[in-house]
């Protein structure tokens, strides 16, 4: 369709357009810094191909997160209408899963295989290990097996390749690890289960051994190419054999080295796809000059770069980023919450909560921030970081749901185990909990039920029914009765509505999840809120599937829902106008007008906690890139914070920030925004600038502002204010009017 095509191209600069139209060879690599429009160009290139008559089902797009895939799909639909539907977009895992669901038998899986999430996988590994008396600590064992899988090393070759997989001190245990690994694989096979690593391995096997399964594909697109692992690269290579391959990436943003990501994939690409085209984009559209400037200084510290980064920004200078320190993490968190409140007010409706993100290196760092946001009544959501549902509540509800719709074998066993424990836990809390005690009841084994079912050749759920009717298996009968009450109520609802969301709602209602969560976490309001959110998100997510239900058969939709829920798509994101809390890692590819990067003390950034205890130069460089990814998410306002007291000791500012020239940021504990700044934001966001904005108390004439900035940069000790003074200052932030007098 020519008019759509013209409109598509009109929204791009000339290099982006070249990349969209490129057709000189069968592969194209687009390299560019953050915000240069890589993802936008990739999307436009897909849309362009569709307007040229390429069929949607001939297009595969691989992104790093489910959210990115959803955004891509939305963009395509917004440009092309219904013509934009039907493109396969997802993470490497979900794309592989889609093909494996279609052709399970080709790789030796039975139909309806189930996916083992990380928790359950760990459980299986532990079980296998206990049979072989393996000395390696459980966590390391799980990691080692996963690493072996991602390096495509089968159990029988593990000993030979042990040096790549185990740490030197664990090398003597390679033999044991191999045995456990082998037993684990056998159990997965006999139980018809695949873990996350298997999804990729079976996918690779499918594309390689049965190329006919992917021969209809004409185009393969990959975003965030810098973070593809060796195995993922092999997948791309196998899938794109006779296709047009387009990959986009930025090696400065490579942050998954610890997951065997391989930044040298670009070189492999050039080898495997001779004549591969190359386009570099050099203009950044996301951030103001002030923000881009700080980010450039940060990444220029990486001495392995061939030259300092040189991209230019199309936007004006904008306000300088802030760099602030606080006595404690609580003071820091309170500042962030108050600053958000102040910004929203000062914007007179121009900024929304959804424009703001708070980023931290580690998940736990956001706890004080959550408390502070809650206490000011600021709505927020926690971005789903990993690809796995890590919240117990969601897994509990899914376990009940799978019993409701009917599962068998290992899946039924795991679900039954989980549900028995949950109802046991709930009732124990209610009736038997010794006053004041927080101890959990011990895990209840369902072995007696398994034996009972085996003797009668019944499925577990039916055996439970039988046992309850006959009052057999005394130690379990109460719990089984409670469990059946939930399953039966929910099943009635499912039969009536044939819909996922109301069925989940009944599960949650009969279990009284809300009350249970409240009781369990009443001392931690943010934790309670987070878990309630998970439950409600899961129900919402079911609703999204129900809405799509007429696209496929009932059962198909239900299974897809279970798959997606296991893989974590769409869960934990919340909807509406909310501040986002995320890790630096999970912020990749996203953008916000306002970003707070918190916890930037030297003990957290670089973080020495993630898996490795030693900060090698390579790890250090990766930590720096991680910070770079986070800071480059900011479009207009960037505030970097850290706190001085750390546990029992004191901390310093991150070494990465110490090297940034002082004139690139302000250390004053209050951002002043001029009318000009707001006008720039309006342009950037495409929003109307309210008349009042920047005029009341926020406004400082340019000279006064410069004088103040100079004064402050001459007296850096200002940041060492006493706690009392800080609190007084913070008090001033809430009302914009009182701000002038506070400095
Ligand atoms: P990252 O490396 O962080 O993933 P990216 O290179 O993928 O960044 P995009 O997310 O595609 O960058 O683009 C950044 C922002 O700039 C987006 O809001 C996008 O819409 C906008 N943008 C990109 N190209 C243009 C353009 N030619 N004109 C106007 N806006 C643009
Ligand atoms: Mg991108």
From TrEMBL:
One of its GO terms (molecular function) is DNA binding. Signal peptide: none annotated. ATP binds at residues 32-39. Residues 289-589 form the UvrD-like helicase C-terminal domain. It comes from the Eukaryota. Keywords: ATP-binding, DNA-binding, Helicase, Hydrolase, Isomerase, Nucleotide-binding. Its EC number is 5.6.2.4. GO terms for cellular component: nucleus. It catalyses: ATP + H2O = ADP + phosphate + H(+); Couples ATP hydrolysis with the unwinding of duplex DNA by translocating in the 3'-5' direction. Residues 11-288 form the UvrD-like helicase ATP-binding domain. GO terms for biological process: recombinational repair. The keyword Translocase does not apply. It is an enzyme of class 5 (isomerase). The keyword Isomerase applies. Belongs to the helicase family. UvrD subfamily. This is DNA 3'-5' helicase.
């Amino acid at each position: 369709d020519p008019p759509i095509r013209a409109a598509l191209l009109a929204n791009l600069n000339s290099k982006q357009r070249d990349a969209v139209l490129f057709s000189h060879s069968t592969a194209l690599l687009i390299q560019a810094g953050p915000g240069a429009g890589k993802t936008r160009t990739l999307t436009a290139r897909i849309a362009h191909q569709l307007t040229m008559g390429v069929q949607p089902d001939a297009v595969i797009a691989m992104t790093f997160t489910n959210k990115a895939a959803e955004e891509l799909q939305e963009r395509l639909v917004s440009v092309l209408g219904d013509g934009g539907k039907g493109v396969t977009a997802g993470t490497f895992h979900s794309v592989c899963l889609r093909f494996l669901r279609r052709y399970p038998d080709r790789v030796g899986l039975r139909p309806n295989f189930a996916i083992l999430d990380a928790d359950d996988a760990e459980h299986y590994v532990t079980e296998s290990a206990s049979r072989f008396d393996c000395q390696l600590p459980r966590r390391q064992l799980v990691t080692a097996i996963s690493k072996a899988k991602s390096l495509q090393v089968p159990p029988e070759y593990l000993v030979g390749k042990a040096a790549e997989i185990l740490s030197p001190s664990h090398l003597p245990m390679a033999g044991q690890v191999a045995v456990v690994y082998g037993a684990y694989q056998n159990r997965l096979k006999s139980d018809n289960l695949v873990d996350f690593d298997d999804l990729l391995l079976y996918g690779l096997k499918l594309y390689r051994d049965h190329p006919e399964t992917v021969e209809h594909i004409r185009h393969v697109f990959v975003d965030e190419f810098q973070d593809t692992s060796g195995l993922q690269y092999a997948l791309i290579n196998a899938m794109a054999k006779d296709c047009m391959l387009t990959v986009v990436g930025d090696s400065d943003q490579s942050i998954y080295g610890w997951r065997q990501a391989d930044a040298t994939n670009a070189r492999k690409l050039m080898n495997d796809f001779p004549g591969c085209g190359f386009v570099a984009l050099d203009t950044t559209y996301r951030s103001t000059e002030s923000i881009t400037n700080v980010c450039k200084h940060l990444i220029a510290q990486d001495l392995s770069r061939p030259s300092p980064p040189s991209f230019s920004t199309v936007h004006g200078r904008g306000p300088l980023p802030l760099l602030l320190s606080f006595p404690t993490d609580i003071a820091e968190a309170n500042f962030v919450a108050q600053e958000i409140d102040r910004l929203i007010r000062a914007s007179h409706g121009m900024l929304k909560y959804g424009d703001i993100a708070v980023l931290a290196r580690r998940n736990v760092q956001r706890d004080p921030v959550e408390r502070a946001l809650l206490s000011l009544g600021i709505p927020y959501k926690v971005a789903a970081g990993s690809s796995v549902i890590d919240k117990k509540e969601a897994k509990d509800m899914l376990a009940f749901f799978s019993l409701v719709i009917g599962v068998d074998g290992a899946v039924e066993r795991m679900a039954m185990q989980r549900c028995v424990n949950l109802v046991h836990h709930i009732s124990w809390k209610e009736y038997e909990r010794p006053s004041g005690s927080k101890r959990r009841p011990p895990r209840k084994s369902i072995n007696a039920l398994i034996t009972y079912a085996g003797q009668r050749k019944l499925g577990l759920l039916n055996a439970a029914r039988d046992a309850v009717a006959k009052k057999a298996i005394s130690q379990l009968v109460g719990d089984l009765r409670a469990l059946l009450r939930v399953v039966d109520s929910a099943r009635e609802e499912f039969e009536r509505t044939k819909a996922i969301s109301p069925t989940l709602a009944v599960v949650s209602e009969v279990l009284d999840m809300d009350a249970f969560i409240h009781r369990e976490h009443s001392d931690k309001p943010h934790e309670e809120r987070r878990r309630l959110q998970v439950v409600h998100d899961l129900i919402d997510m079911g609703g999204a599937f129900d809405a799509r239900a007429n696209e496929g058969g009932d059962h198909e939709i239900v299974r897809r829902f279970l798959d997606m829920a296991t893989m974590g798509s769409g869960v934990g994101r919340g909807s509406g106008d909310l501040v986002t809390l995320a890790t630096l890692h999970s912020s990749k590819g996203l953008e916000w007008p306002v970003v707070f990067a918190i916890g930037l003390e030297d003990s957290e950034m670089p973080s020495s906690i993630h898996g490795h205890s030693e900060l090698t130069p390579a790890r250090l460089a990766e930590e720096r890139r991680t910070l770079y990814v986070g800071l480059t998410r900011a479009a207009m306002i960037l505030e970097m914070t850290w706190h001085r007291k750390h546990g029992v000791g004191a901390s310093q500012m991150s070494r990465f920030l110490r090297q940034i020239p002082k004139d690139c940021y302000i250390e004053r504990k209050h951002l002043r925004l001029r009318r000009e700044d707001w006008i720039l934001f309006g342009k950037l966001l495409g929003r109307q600038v309210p008349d009042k904005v920047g005029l009341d108390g926020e406004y400082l004439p340019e000279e006064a502002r410069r004088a103040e900035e100079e004064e402050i940069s001459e007296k850096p000790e200002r940041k060492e204010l006493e706690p009392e003074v800080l609190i007084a200052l913070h008090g001033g932030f809430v009302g914009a009017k009182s701000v002038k007098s506070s400095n």
